[in-house]
Amino acid sequence: MWTHLGISGKVEHPQCKIEHPCLPEGTFLHFICDVPHIVKCIRNHMMKHKYGQVGEYQANFQHYERLFEAEKKAAIKVVPKLTEHHVKPQKLQTMNVRLATQLFSRSVSIGLKVYRQMMVPGFADSFGTEQFTMLLNDLFDILNSKVPAAGIRKGSPKIKFLDDFLAMLNETESIPNVKLFASRQTIESLRVTLMSVLSLVEFLFNQGVSYILTASLNQDPLERFFGLVRSFGGDEDHPTVTKFSQLFRLLSLYTPVKLATKGNCEAGDERVLLSTFESLGEKRREALLQKRKVKDEVFQRLTSLPSRGLSAPFDDDVYSVSSPEKAALYYLAGYVAHKMMK
C-alpha cells in the first residue's frame, strides 16, 4: 500500500507523507509504522541472526543469553526482571511486545555493563550491545510517551535524539556488506516513522501545541479494540461489516448495562464498605507504627556499634567488589541505608 501511494523508506529517496486528497492544499497525510511492532521485529531479527550493526556499535544477541544464564545462578540479581521468556521466547511469545521492550531496557544495558566491568568471561566485548540496548530503550521511550512529563516539547533534546538516530540509520546502511540489526523492511519502516514523527512535531509546534504524546500515534489501542470485537464474535473471528457494526453497538452498551444490573443500594453493603475502609485505615496506622519501630531499632543498632576514628586506615579489601552479585549487594545496602535516613 505504501508503494502505491508513493511512500518509501529507501535511503536514496525517502518519502514519509503525501498531500491530502480532500483537504485544502498544504495539508498532508503522514505514514507511521507501529513502534512497538518495530521493536518486536528488531528483537526477533537479532534472535535469529545473532548479531547486527547499528552506527559504530555491533550488537550480539548472545550477550543477552549469557546475561540470563549468569543471573539465573545468582542469589542477588543485577537484572532481576530478566527471564527466559525474554531471551528465548516460544511461539506466541515472539509476538509479545512487552518482552521485547523489557529486553531492550536501561536495566539490561546496565546489567551488561556491570558484568563487563567485573571482567566476567563472555562479556569482554559487550560494550556495543550495551550501547545498542540503551539506544533502543531511549528510542522507544521517546516514541511511546504517554504522560505530559514524558512528552516532546519545543527545544527538547528528544528531537535531536530522533534526528541523530535517523542519521545513524543512514550511515549504517551506507557501510558496504554490513549485517544490519534489523531486516531491510523494518529499517525502512523505522525511517519513514522517524521522518513522519519529526515532521508532525514541527507542524504541531507551529500550531501552538505545547507538548506531544507520541503514544497516541501507535496502534496498540486500535489493535486491542479490534481484538475485543473479534473475541465477542465467538467462533467467527473475521466478522463482516454488518457483524462488526452489531458487535460495536453491543460493546457500546455492554459496560453501562453490566454495571447497572450488578449494582444495588441495600444498606448492608454500605456498612460493609464503611467497615472495610475503617479496617484499611487501621492497618495503615499499624504499618506506620511498625515501620517507625524497625527504623528506630536499626538506627539504635548502628549507633551502638564501635566507631572507627577518622584517622583510622580503611582496609581497601573490604570495599573491593569481585563479582556482580557483590556489586548488587553493596548497591542494595546503600539503598536501604539511604531510605532509612529519610
Automatic annotation (TrEMBL):
<dbReference type="Pfam" id="PF21789">
    <property type="entry name" value="TNP-like_RNaseH_C"/>
</dbReference>
<dbReference type="InterPro" id="IPR048367">
    <property type="entry name" value="TNP-like_RNaseH_C"/>
</dbReference>
<feature type="domain" description="Transposable element P transposase-like RNase H C-terminal">
    <location>
        <begin position="217"/>
        <end position="249"/>
    </location>
</feature>
<protein>
    <recommendedName>
        <fullName>Transposable element</fullName>
    </recommendedName>
</protein>
<feature type="domain" description="Transposable element P transposase-like GTP-binding insertion">
    <location>
        <begin position="37"/>
        <end position="149"/>
    </location>
</feature>
<dbReference type="Pfam" id="PF21788">
    <property type="entry name" value="TNP-like_GBD"/>
</dbReference>
<dbReference type="InterPro" id="IPR048366">
    <property type="entry name" value="TNP-like_GBD"/>
</dbReference>
